[in-house]
Amino acid sequence: MSDTPIGIDLSNAKIDQFNQNMQDLYYTTRPEYEECQLRCKILNLVNDIWQTYLYETELDAMQDEYNKRYRDIITNKSFVELQSIPNPKHHNKPYRRYGPTQTHNNNKPESPEQSEQKDSNPNRSTSTNDADSNNESSSKEQEIFSGSEEKVSESNASGSDKDGDKDDNKDKDKDEQFNHWCTPIEGEEKVIIIREYEGGPIVKRVIIPSVMIFGSIAFGLDGFGSDIDLALPASISNPAVNAHKDTNYQSKLLKAFMSRFNLEMKKSSALGLKW
């Protein structure tokens, strides 16, 4: 391939306008909070059902005296428990792309370009921001960032700025479009803890991988009504499956999931989901 630049017979003004039109198209088709929340429900539901299956499968393996991974550590006194792994980077509710919604123009959300420049400087100081925010505002902002269903009302933010400039409000609205709602792409991980006996020392920890979203949602190219592509780990010890070589194994896993999914239909109903 040639490295020669391709000439585009367009003026700078037209190129800028095309770029602006593409950005407007992208940011005006971002899914709203309610749609991201629905996706979260589906992700967490599937993750819970499938991790339960993987956990029970692993318990069966522990009882197999010929299993190399457990035959030397599992005894009649062994105690097994399941725990969730907290991870602040992965939310179980929708979250803002660039953090909490700001209420003043001088603290407006950053554009993607500004955010990338900021993230590229690991030595940046945050003391100014920390000093300016009190405990109450920090807790409210954290609540939004974690995807709380109790979204802060826009009217509360604008109520204190009734005498503010219209230009400031326009700039805030324009920049707020960059701070759109996002869907978490990874379910909660869990860990199997094997103890020598109940309350005793830990002998082994086994991580149960989580269900993940891939495709357009994972790349941030989703829009209203985008479908959800879910990747289920094949097992704890070997999560990945070759889609071209292991078709029979994939079919077996799919049948196992559908069987479990149908058995857990009550969980779907409790979330208000109908299939």
3D structure, described in words:
This protein has 275 residues and is of the alpha+beta class. The chain contains ten helices and seven strands. The strands form three sheets. A three-stranded antiparallel sheet has the order 1-4-5. A hairpin with a 6-residue loop joins strand 4 (190-195) and strand 5. It is elongated and about 80 Å long. 15% of the residues are buried. The model is unreliable at 102-160 (pLDDT under 50).
Please supply descriptive tags for the structure shown above.
single chain, 275 residues, alpha+beta, 3-stranded antiparallel sheet
| Oligomerization | single chain
Q: Provide the gyration radius in Å.
A: 24 Å
Number of DSSP helices? 10
Distance between the termini: 49 Å
Q: Report low-confidence residues grouped into runs of 5 or more.
A: 102-160
Q: Could you give a short account of the major beta sheet?
A: 3 strands, antiparallel
Report the average pLDDT across residues. 75
Helix/strand-derived class? alpha+beta
Strand arrangement, major sheet: 1-4-5
Strand content: 5-15%
**In which range does the helix fraction lie?**
40-55%
